[in-house]
Every structure is written in structure tokens, then in C-alpha cells.
Amino acid sequence: MPTTSPLVLGHRGASGYLPEHTLAAYELAARQGADHLELDLVPTRDGVLVARHENNIWGTTDVADHPELAARRRRAVVDGKELDGIFTEDLTLEELRTLRARERLPGLRSTEHDGQWPVPTFPEIIDLRARLSEELGRTIGLYVELKHPTHLAAAGLPIEERMLADLDAGGLLSEGDRDAVWVQCFEPGSLRTMRERLGSPLRQVLLATAVDDVPADLVAAGEERTYAELLSPEGLADLDGVLDGVGPSKTMVLPWTADGALGEPTSLVGDAHAAGLAVHAWTFRAENRFLPVPLRSTGEDGAPGPEDALGDLAGEVRAYLEAGVDGIFTDHPDLVVQAVRDPDGAAGG
């Protein structure tokens, strides 16, 4: 159901400040006021769930600097895309633990923290959540994404049951504690498996990319339903009982106009709310590169500012709050917390 207070969701932790999917980034997000820590799960070869945005770790770790792992490099098709790199399912946890995280966007964000932290396991993140909840005196939630479930199941590494087992071991499936967890996925079939076959009591969100994209599990099954169709009133009715929310890319809520400004809201928020579903939009980042043109910062002469300069993220967030979204995925939790608490911009922007 829609929430009464917009949730601030620390996207891969406070990934605007520290390398994504590290314990340090998650901790910073919590200390900046995020309600939930958003993380993506993929498995190692020996079945341990770890936090990476994708199973190809070439761009977010120092694996290229490890000659002992060079023979693992290969090309693979994942969700219809041909990739070149080293994949988590080809490494044991012991091997993965020799690596260190790196900044995903080195041309845009600082690399001074590269090489400091290992890739965390899901149980380590669950333990961190418990410690921070106690220390900060509030419940820190987890917002967990199942990555590439169809691809990984075909490789003999289904992740749904592994995720539930880790949550159960951490006490997060018990009544009273399960509300701290949301589960998200781009593949509706995985969420249906979670709810109908595995009996998951957790709240579930269908993520959605561009309106014309088709989920990977539907492509594998020979179906052609797009995300736009799945998020239509008819599509949401078909998923009744499976979903508690939807997670659209932000332009599915407020499309950009031809000149790069925010356009008029689509019907998505109203359709989802009419179906009793929350809407959590992604991803909100403060750098000019990611902002609508009118909200980008400029130089002293009024010329466009550099793409790594910070613009008016609060202004963008306020527009989405006015459109009715219930949650904001962000790389910069501190800035979004301020915008959510000060929706009229009285504190400045």
C-alpha cells in the first residue's frame, strides 16, 4: 500500500560519496538518514549471496589487477546483452574476498576510496543493519533486489531461496521484523515464485525500465509484454496478490520534454495507487549529468556547469513528491532526506 511518508532509499548505499555496495556506503546512507539500504544480490560459485549491481564485476572491483584470476575472463550473454568480464558465479567466496571495490563512475565521482573495502556478503549486510538500527535508535530497513534470476537459475544458481534463508537466519522473516524488508526485481516471474511457490511474506516490488522494454524472464519464455503493459491497470490486475509496489524509472512518472525539462505526469502513480500499490521511483542523483536541464547548476557566466557539478536535486525530488511517489531511490541520501523533510524548499536548495 502507498506509504504516508516518502521513503528515502539509499541506492547501493550512499553511492554518490563512496564506492557502491560496500559496508561503508551502506553505513553512510543510514547515518545520512536513509530509511532503507538498497542492495543487489548475486551468487558466488559456491552459492553465497554477495552485493553487486550485476554479476559482471569487471567495472566495480580491482579484478583486472589479479593475474591469478585472468583465466576466468570470458564473454557471456546476460539478460540478452553480450558482456566481457569476470562473473561472480565463476568465483568462490574465498576468491572474491581477495578483491576490493572500485568507483563505478571514475570520470564523475572521486576514486580516493578505491581499494579500501571488500565485496560484502548478504549476511554481513544483515548484521550491519541490526547494529545500526540499535545504535541509531530507529529501524533501518533493507531493500533487496534479486538480480538476473532467470539467467542464474539456468546456471544452476537460483537465488530466491538463498535470499530467504539468509533473511530467516537474520531474524527478518519473523512477524514484526519482516516489515523492515522489501524485495524488488525486474522479472515478474521471480516475484511470483517468491510469493506463490515459496510463500514469502515480504513486500514485493516490480521494477520497470523504459516503457518498451520486456523483462528478461518473459523474453526467455517467448512473451512480449512490455513494462508499460505490466504497469497498466490490466497488467497490475494480473499481478494482484504478487505485488505491494512498483519501482519505475523516474521518466516513467515524469517524462522529459524535448528540451530536457520535466514534463507532465503520466497515469502511472494514479494507476498504481488505485491498485493499492506503492510507487518507489529511481534513480535520483545530484550531478548535472543526471538532472533535467533546468535543474542543472551553471557557471558564473550562466553557461552550463560541468556534468560532475551538483545541481538542484531537491527541486527534482519535490516535483516527484508532488506527483505522488511514495519512495525515492537515491545515491545522495542526505540531500533527499533534506528535500523530503522540507518539501517547500524553505531551507534553501
From TrEMBL:
Residues 6-340 form the GP-PDE domain. It catalyses: a sn-glycero-3-phosphodiester + H2O = an alcohol + sn-glycerol 3-phosphate + H(+). Keywords: Glycerol metabolism, Hydrolase, Signal. One of its GO terms (biological process) is glycerol metabolic process. The keyword Transcription regulation does not apply. Coiled coil: none annotated. GO terms for cellular component: periplasmic space. It is an enzyme of class 3 (hydrolase). Its EC number is 3.1.4.46. One of its GO terms (molecular function) is glycerophosphodiester phosphodiesterase activity. It comes from the Bacteria. Transmembrane segments: none annotated. Belongs to the glycerophosphoryl diester phosphodiesterase family. This is glycerophosphodiester phosphodiesterase. It comes from Serinicoccus hydrothermalis.
